[in-house]
C-alpha cells in the first residue's frame, strides 16, 4: 500500500520554484537556517529553536552516511543546499546535489559560492528517477526528505543503486505510514499528501523490501517520529503569523489549506518518520 497522488511530480517543481505563498513560506524556512526538513528535539523539555533542531537532523544523517575523506556523495533532492554545506564543513568530501527546481539549483550554487564551498559542491537540475550520471559514479548518497515527493520510489532507488559503487552507504530521512490506518486517518493522509506534493508514502516494510530488491543490505531503521513531531505545529504557527503576506492573486483558500494541513500533520498518528541507512552490496 502506497498512498499519494500518482503521475509526474511537476507539481513539486512548481511548489519549490515558488508561488507567492511558497516564497513567503520559504522566508520562514530561511529563518530556520535554510533547511527544508524537520527538526529533531530530544524530548518535551528540549527548547532548541528550529534552526538548531533542523541542523541536528542533518547531523544524524551525516552520522548515518559516515563518509570517508575524498568520497563523492550524491545529495538526492538537495533543496537550497544547506544540508550539503553542513556535510562539506564536517567532512573532506565532494557533493553533487540534484533537485527538480531550477530556482533551488541557483540558490544552492549561490549559497555554496558565498560559503566558499563551490569547489567541492555541484548542484544540477535532475530527476532522481532518471539520473544523468554513469554507473558507479558515487561513493555514498543521501535523500533527506525527498523520496516522498518522487512518484516512483522504486525507480529512484534503482537509479540510486546504479550510480553508487559497491559498498557505498545510503542514508534516507522520510515519512512512513504507521499501520493499521483508520479510514479517517487515510483521509487525513491523502489531504496532506495532496497539499504538499507527497507522491510516495508507505509502511516501512514496503520501503525495506524495495531497498533489499535493489541490493541494499545491512539496513538499519531508526524511528524518530516523536522527535520530529513538533515541526508541523511550529511551522503552521509561523505561517499563520504571516498569512496575509502569503495570500496573493486570491489564493487564500490554498494558503489556509496549507496551514491547516501542516497543523493536521503533527496530529495524524498515521504519519511516522524514520531514518534509514544501508550499504550497497
Ligand atoms: C523537502 S525538500 C528537502 C530539501 C533538502 N534535502 C533539505 O533537507 O533541505 C524536497 C526536495 O526534493 C526535491 N525533489 C522532489 N522530487 C524530486 C525528483 N523527482 N528528483 C530530484 N529531486 C526531487 C525537491 O526539488 C526538493 O529539493
UniProtKB/TrEMBL annotation:
Lineage, broadest ranks: Bacteria, Bacillati, Actinomycetota, Actinomycetes, Kitasatosporales
Gene Ontology molecular function terms on file: methyltransferase activity
The UniProt record lists the keyword Amino-acid biosynthesis: no
Protein's name according to its UniProt entry: 27-O-demethylrifamycin SV methyltransferase
GO biological process: methylation
InterPro entries named among the record's database cross-references: Erg6_SMT_methyltransf (IPR050447), MeTfrase_dom (IPR020803), Methyltransf_25 (IPR041698), SAM-dependent_MTases_sf (IPR029063)
Pfam families (alphabetical): Methyltransf_25 (PF13649)
Keyword annotations of the record: Methyltransferase, S-adenosyl-L-methionine, Transferase
Transmembrane regions: none
SUPFAM superfamilies, sorted: S-adenosyl-L-methionine-dependent methyltransferases (SSF53335)
Source organism of the structure: Streptomyces similanensis
Domain Polyketide synthase-like methyltransferase: 53-281
SMART domains: PKS_MT
